[in-house]
Amino acid sequence: MCEVGTRPPLAAERGEPPGGAAAAERCRDMGEQPIFTTRAHVFQIDPSTKKNWVPASKQAVTVSYFYDSTRNSYRIISVDGAKVIINSTITPNMTFTKTSQKFGQWADSRANTVFGLGFPSEQQLTKFAEKFQEVKEAAKLARDRSQEKIETSSNHSQESGRETPSSTRASSVNGTDDEKASHGGSAEAHLKSENDKLKIALAQSSSNVKKWETELQSLRESNARLSTALQESAASIEHWKKQFSACKEENDQLRGKIEELEEQCNEINKEKERNAQLSRRLQELETELQDKELELEELRKQGEIIPELMSECESVSEQLQAAEKKNKDLEEKVRTLRTEVEENKHRQTNLKTELKNFLDVLDGKIDELHDFRQGLSKLGIDN
User: Fold this and answer.
1) C-alpha angle with apex 377: 372 to 378, nearest 5 degrees?
2) With 60 as the cut, is the pLDDT of residue 160 above it?
3) Phi-psi region of 314 (alpha: psi -120 to 50; beta: other; left: phi over 0)
4) Per-residue confidence band for 159, with pLDDT thresholds at 50, 70 and 90
5) Beta 103-108 vs 113-118: how paired, if at all?
6) Distances (CA, A) of 361 to 348, 364, 365
7) How many CA atoms does the CB half-sphere of 41 hold within 13 Å?
8) Distance CA 310, CA 243 (A)
9) What is the pLDDT of residues 19-78, one digit of tens each?
10) Whole-angstrom distance, CA of residue 95 vs CA of residue 132
11) Host H or E run for residue 174
């Protein structure tokens, strides 16, 4: 039987062609026979994280159930080339779990790992799981029978040890000398055979005790590894709790930032509304400016008439002076002319006064228009 945990010799060391068939043939030669064979992708649990799957084969390989008639045990064996990737002895405590339609797994405490198999179809996974349950029950039955044999052998040894002295005493007390001699010889032969049986039972018990001690040590090591894995899992849980708390704090901070951004967006929307109002006001002011420019244009046209009026006044003055010179002799005409001159002067004074008031009003309008333009320019720059 191929021992668990040992590396089989390579094909090159044996002078055999490489491949899993040679390894399976060696197991058959040493007492193991395949009882079920299928093909699947093999995975093992990552020993560092205990969560992720690590591929043990690059492609689908042969996975077989083997039965060892000498030890009455069952194993799952898979070989990829010259490398044994599964060597798992099935115990009654093992459980095969279907985690999906095409994937299943089981834990091996002796190997301190978890094996996973990916099948091409759900039907093949179901057949493998049924065979696992069947082999598990057979292993349990074999274990119960082995314990019954040990208990029966132990009870038989105890009964033989109790019965032998009583028969010897009876023959020594009740028999004659000849009978004693004959009975003594048969008793010695019986005792010898019983002693041989006891030696065989003791040897078997010793081997069983060693086997149990080995299994107990293996279980202790498995328990230690499981305790270590449990501690690592607890540490990992604490680590994830800390990360969860950190993520929660970060999430709260992000929520606060989102609220701030929402407030900023609301302020931006308000600014947009204010800008729209300012744009409408600007359009109204531009319309008013156009009206003011039209009014100013009219005032400019009226201002162009003033030089003509001034020139007329000057010509009238000249004519008046000429008339005064020409009509000195004529007093009546002079009085009349003086009256006209006085009237003209009075009109001229009124005209100048009106002209001055008009010019003052015009200057005020120009100043107001200038201030209005500066306000519009400043409003445009601010926007």
Assistant:
1) 95
2) no
3) alpha
4) low
5) antiparallel
6) 19, 5, 6
7) 12
8) 96
9) 444 444 555 545 577 889 999 999 999 888 888 899 998 889 999 999 888 888 899 999
10) 8
11) helix 122-174
